[in-house]
Amino acid sequence: MPRSWMPWLGVPKTAAAIGLLAGFWVPALAVAAAVGLVLFFTAAVVTHVRVRDFTFGPQYPFLLLAVSTLILRALE
Hints:
Layout: H1 10-22, H2 27-50, H3 59-75
Helix pairs in contact: 1-2, 2-3
């Protein structure tokens, strides 16, 4: 991935964070934000595995947090 893309990776994460916060008032928005985060961090894991980078990075715990948030919000 080109380094010039790195700052732009923060845009969907920021949007998801805002969506999760707004989800306290609009629950459907929190579910959409959690789905977006699950997709984002799944893509991050796949990207790291494709380049054979098997180090334990923040993408794994963040993926678990996003999945748990999605499950908890979907069960409400």
